[in-house]
Amino acid sequence: MLKQQAVILLVDDDIAHRTMLKVNLVKEGFMVVELGDGDEVLPFLTANHVDLLLLDLKMTRMDGITTLSTMLQAGYTIPVIVLTAFSSVESAVLAMKRGAFDYITKPVDIEELKLAISRALNFRVLSVENEALKTRLDEKFGFDNIIGSSPAMQEMFATLSMVAPSDGTVLITGESGTGKELIANALHHKSQRKNGPFIKLNCAALHENLLESELFGHEAGSFTGASSRRKGRFELAHRGTLFLDEIGDMSPATQAKVLRVLQDGTFERVGGTETITVDVRLVAATHKNLRAMIDTGEFRQDLFFRLSVVPIHLPPLRERAIDIPELSRHFLNRYSKKNRKDIKGFHPEVFSLLMQYEWPGNIRELENTIERAVILCMGEQITPHELPPQFFSDATIPQRTLDGRSEFTLRDLEREAIKATLSQTGNNKSLTAKKLGIARQTLLNKIKEFGLE
What we know:
alpha/beta; Rossmann fold; Helicase, Ruva Protein, domain 3
């Protein structure tokens, strides 16, 4: 925080001392506001912005400790530096236990005070940024960010709200692309562990030997290439949440070691003998049928029961078609901003086609479809022309004949869109550019490029 931007509230009933401090702080570029006693602080904070409080401990009407306590009770988290006589250091220590940032003994060394102020203001900036980050994380990973008004999703939201605050192990099942990682994120950020680490690992992405090392860590020399000790994901997730995606791809040997961690919270690193204890909440996910894998001996039944304390099933998109318009608008807004386009919405026929489609790739496929449509769209509305071929039977493919050809390129589409819009607007370039969502100069360049002059 720049000094010129910082507002310091100086509270001291000694006018001469207060004036001396103000003169020195103003010289440093700070804005300094003076108050004569502690009982004036709370009314002032209610109506004014303050970045830092310099607070004398010994005052006539309300001492510094009481002032500090009333501030904290009122919810103020402004950093406070207390000023105290050398003989009252114990009181200053008590003030720090009550929430003060630092203390300075009298007579005040101005250089020491400037250093303390700098540290306090930096702390203030970090605190504000941290709160803003937490807010953004809550918005990004909270349940409100998970879109769905279908009965299946509403039932899932009810389960999530009950499960998130607990430490229960959760097993999320569902087809690929249904949003299992998004649910895991939301569970962590709505839990009591949200200030702890959230560690992720895709079990299908690694060979069995590498997976064991990633999960539990390894000691130096435990295998070729292990030049130093390395912590595993369980250690890194201590006092937080570990999300194991595609746990159905884990080998039976590794399953047994994960089961032990779930039972007693202990394990050894690969190549090590030291037993490590961790406090971790486990959230697992899979697109496989674990019950069927139990019958074939591919998955341990005891691990399955440990994992599925709270089972959550994500329905495929084809079973929640009612959510497709809302999801589509969400992705349209995201990718219109990303691609700097002003696309207002969808042609009604588009929703009809989207809701009839089977969506084998689920929400991930829908997102990719909308992103593609945004990139191809030259107007203010997504039309069936921007959808990929799999959405149409031979009889329903929109006719887009270009100069008698049955095949065309993206360049052809762009030329025809400009040509058609110019015709609609009576060759009005400004209106055409607005309808296509592009700059007028870009339109003029395209007209020249395509020979449409």
